[in-house]
């Protein structure tokens, strides 16, 4: 879709790579100014340099002070924040085990980024959004595993389920203040991470890839651009009556069981 975001400023976390960078580019294609917020500052700066109006900020979303500095810098540079995309997140590759064997430190690492970090960034970015009084849009990146659980990644499943219900809570609390909150729940997307698991020849579960695809009605993984397009829709003024919605972009994964 095409929309007019020329008067909007978007703050996107985890935007230096993968889904986040695709989201940033799609918003910029439609005129938005971008804040590329990421712990990977080298790639954040590289992405920002390719966009017409963008800055890069070094942000570990577990660090409240770093988040506040990035939000302050965004306001200093662009005067406002209108769109927040909570994309930053992590999963585990080394510890694909049942919960009875899951390491405590790895549990806390994933929850602290995927759920706690989303809360911290939202709270900080809401300050200038609410102070300006012109409304805004928040899009949280959840996952289909927050709707239909999978094995061997219990903290990721728990965090994404938390994001889904937190999105609804935020929609209830912020809607009357002019800020819409929605979420995108991607299915299996072709990223560097999923190549390590399924889609690369040396992927950890490569031998089971076809069985996995057989469960998805469209029979393929999604693309980065397909997630970015969903985020653009939810951030755009055309979706101004969409609030508290969880948009699955999963090829039909969660529609039901494939026999």
What does this structure look like?
The radius of gyration is 18 Å and the shape is globular. It is an alpha/beta fold and 259 residues long. The protein folds into two domains: 9-187 and 224-251, NAD(P)-binding Rossmann-like Domain (Rossmann fold, 3-Layer(aba) Sandwich); 190-221, no CATH class. The protein has eight helices and seven strands. A seven-stranded parallel sheet has the order 3-2-1-4-5-6-7, sandwiched between helices. Helix 3 (64-78) runs parallel beside helix 4 (104-132) and helix 4 (104-132) runs parallel beside helix 5.
Write the layout of secondary structure elements.
Elements: E1 9-13, H1 18-29, E2 33-38, H2 41-49, E3 54-58, H3 64-78, E4 83-86, H4 104-132, E5 136-141, H5 154-174, E6 179-186, H6 192-199, H7 209-214, H8 224-235, E7 246-249
Parallel strand pairs: 1-2, 1-4, 2-3, 4-5, 5-6, 6-7
Helix pairs in contact: 1-8, 3-4, 4-5
How many domain regions? 2
Using the CA coordinates, give the radius of gyration. Answer: 18 Å
> And the CATH topology of the largest domain?
Rossmann fold
Q: Shape from CA axes?
A: globular
Total strand segments: 7
Major pleated sheet? 7 strands, parallel
CATH class term of the largest domain? Alpha Beta
Per DSSP, the total helix count is: 8
- Main sheet: which strands, in order across? 3-2-1-4-5-6-7
The N- to C-terminal Cα distance equals 34 Å
Fraction of residues in helix: 40-55%
Tell me what the CATH architecture of the largest domain is. 3-Layer(aba) Sandwich
Indicate the mean pLDDT: 93
Structural class: alpha/beta
CATH homology-level superfamily of the largest domain: NAD(P)-binding Rossmann-like Domain
Percent of residues in beta strands: 5-15%
* Uncertain residue ranges: none
Order of helices and strands: EHEHEHEHEHEHHHE
């Amino acid at each position: 879709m095409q929309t007019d975001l020329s008067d909007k400023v978007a703050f996107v976390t985890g935007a230096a790579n993968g889904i986040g960078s695709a989201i940033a580019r799609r918003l910029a294609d439609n005129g938005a100014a971008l804040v590329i917020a990421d712990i990977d500052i080298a790639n954040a700066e590289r992405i920002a340099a390719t966009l017409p109006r963008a800055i890069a900020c070094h942000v570990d979303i577990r660090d409240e002070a770093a988040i506040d500095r990035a939000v302050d810098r965004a306001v200093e540079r662009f005067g406002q924040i209108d769109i927040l995309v909570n994309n930053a997140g992590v999963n585990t590759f080394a510890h694909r085990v049942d919960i009875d064997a899951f390491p405590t430190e790895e549990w806390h690492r994933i929850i602290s980024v995927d759920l706690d970090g989303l809360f911290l960034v939202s709270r900080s970015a809401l300050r200038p959004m609410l102070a300006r009084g012109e409304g805004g849009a928040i899009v949280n990146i959840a996952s289909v595993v927050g709707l239909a659980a999978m094995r061997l990644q219990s903290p990721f499943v728990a965090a994404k389920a938390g994001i889904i219900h937190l999105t609804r809570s935020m929609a209830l609390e912020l809607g009357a203040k002019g800020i819409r909150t929605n979420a995108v729940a991607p299915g299996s997307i072709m990223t560097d991470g999923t190549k390590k698991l399924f889609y690369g020849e040396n992927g950890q579960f490569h031998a089971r890839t076809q069985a996995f695809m057989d469960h998805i009605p469209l029979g393929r993984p999604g693309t980065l651009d397909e997630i970015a397009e969903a985020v653009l829709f939810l951030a755009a003024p055309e979706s101004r009556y969409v609030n508290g919605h969880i948009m699955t972009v999963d090829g039909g994964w969660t529609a039901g069981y494939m026999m």
